[in-house]
Amino acid sequence: MLTRGMSEHPKMACGVFAAIDFDKHPVFPLLYWGIRSQNHRGHQSHGFLTYDGEFHVHKALNLVPKIEKSEVEKWLAKLPGYIGVANVRYTTSGKTDHESLQKGTQPVKAEKDDLKLAVSFNGNVVNTRQLLKEIREVFPDFYYECDAELICRKLLMELLKERDLASAVKKCMEEIEGAFSVSGITGDGKFFAFKDPYGIRPLCAGHSENGKIYVFSSETVGLDINGLTLDFELEPGELVLVSEDGFKREKLVENGRAFCAFEFAYFARPDSRFDDKFVYEIREEFGRNLARENPDIVKDADIIVSMPETGNDAAYGLHEETGLRWERATRRHRFVTERAFILLPHERYRTIDKKINILADKIRGKRVIIVDDSIVRGDTTRVVVEKLRKMGAKKVYIFITFPRIIGPCFYGIDMATYGELIGSKHTPEEIAKIVGADAVRYQSIEGFVRATGLKREELCLGCITRKYPTRLAQKLADEMYKKFVRGCKETGRIYEVTNLGDELAKSLRSSKC
Ligand code: SF4
């Protein structure tokens, strides 16, 4: 499994950027930069939707391209409007053929009777079966390629009934299970954003100096690149409406918070902020924690080497705490993006060579601590260790900032089955043997949580504890785990299985295995 990106690292589902300009200037340039700064959150497709009384849409596959000035002018002409929503996407559910990816590109829109709606979304819906059933009663031919369409239809249906945005959003928060950070535009020009009751995915709000532009962005880097000021991170279960007077915030559902812990270790850009802390500062603390938690290895090591980019900040923290030299012996091949790889079949485990240059002269004869953010399948870690050994490393220790991943994610990260996770089957000692390292050490959950500045109960730690914040996800995780420990073959990605809803429970119960 986990073959979509041919990568060790799991993929994010989406990034959102949305804007309104009360001076009625076109928002497309803001959307373009806001979403381009967040291309790390999804690189399979991108899309823009603007509003000037009508919706205008442009969607394409791949990374947000560099656009020539002449192209920008063409796009501006195609995308007029002073309100807009944009999205970058990596699919964690649904099909991945070219046509499906194109269809599943966001933003999405829907209309019925006199109502129209467009949304851009980040997250993943868990109770898809139940929602589909309900939606098809109103839209019998409804077929969907991405969860944004489920959210958009459900919200439209509730708007048709309630005729009030806050009541409709509240219904969605109560009846949709999963992670959803959403920004949208109604057919009559209301601009809004909301988060699921646990606030699993990020979404922040900001404004321009002249008080005319208001935006929502998955990460604060979307604001920085546009020269905007951060106002706040949306609360779980909160709806935010925008008018010329600014943001109107309304907490619709009270549930606590379960923010995705993995955002801090891997997904978010280091220069993004959550709750007034930069992600890179948190990652530096991860490195200091790893030093404190593993004095035996620190004592034995000569140098620290980081896996770029997400290992760099932790390596710096480790260096600060220990005084060990952080040898910058791994460098990314610039302008080589994952999607640009052309790999021969026998090269499929050598993606590391295409991405990272490791400098043998700096490794030879050394006892090396490698710092990385996570281990999912272990394939890349094994290749890196093998490479370092060939280069003459005397010892190879692996320090991992994210605690051992032992369960799937139901909320928009591409880790779907127990079987694909090396950590769900093996202890750190066994993993060290498998990947050929002298030791593999994960940061403790306690250390990780402390470094984020959040309380344990404010984080989703589902994939590292098997305790999930939402009910159906927990049920699925438990059912799947029972089968997994009995040695049953996992027949599909959990999202596809999830789509079976009640049938899942039935099939799990009736299975001989
Ligand atoms: S299960 Fe893991 S990856 Fe998924 S939302 Fe929770 S912490 Fe994040």
Q: For the largest sheet, list the strands in their spatial order.
A: 3-2-4-1-10-9-11
Largest sheet: 7 strands, antiparallel
Whole-number radius of gyration? Answer: 23 Å
Query: Beta-sheet strand percentage?
Result: 15-25%
Counting helices, strands and paired strands, the structural category is: alpha+beta
In one word, what is the shape? globular
The percent of residues in helical segments reads: 25-40%
Entry keywords:
513 residues, alpha+beta, 7-stranded antiparallel sheet, 21 helices, 24% strand, disordered N terminus, binds iron/sulfur cluster
Describe this structure in words.
- The structure is a single chain.
- This protein has 513 residues and is an alpha+beta fold.
- The strands form 6 sheets. The protein has a 7-stranded antiparallel β-sheet with strand order 3-2-4-1-10-9-11.
- Strand 21 (367-372), helix 14 and strand 22 form a beta-alpha-beta unit.
- Helix 5 crosses helix 6 (165-175), helix 9 (279-293) packs across helix 11 (312-322) and helix 9 (279-293) packs antiparallel against helix 17.
- Bound molecules: iron/sulfur cluster.
- Residues 200, 260-262, 409, 411, 413, 460-463 line the site of iron/sulfur cluster (SF4).
Please specify the SSE layout and strand pairing.
Elements (H helix, E strand, L loop, with lengths): L13 E8 L6 H9 L8 E7 L3 E7 L7 H10 L4 E7 L8 H6 L4 E5 L2 E11 L2 H11 L8 H16 L2 H11 L2 E9 L4 E5 L8 E4 L5 E5 L3 H4 L4 E5 L4 E6 L2 E6 L7 E2 L1 H6 L5 E2 L2 E2 H15 L1 H6 L2 E4 L5 H11 L2 E2 L3 E3 L18 H5 E3 L1 H4 L3 E6 L6 H12 L4 E6 L21 H4 L2 H8 L3 E4 L2 H8 L6 E2 L1 H4 L5 H15 L8 H5 L3 H9 L3
Parallel strand pairs: 14-24, 17-18, 17-21, 21-22, 22-23
Antiparallel strand pairs: 1-4, 1-10, 2-3, 2-4, 5-6, 6-7, 7-8, 8-12, 9-10, 9-11, 12-13, 15-16, 19-20
Helix pairs in contact: 4-5, 5-6, 9-11, 9-17
Bound molecules: iron/sulfur cluster (SF4).
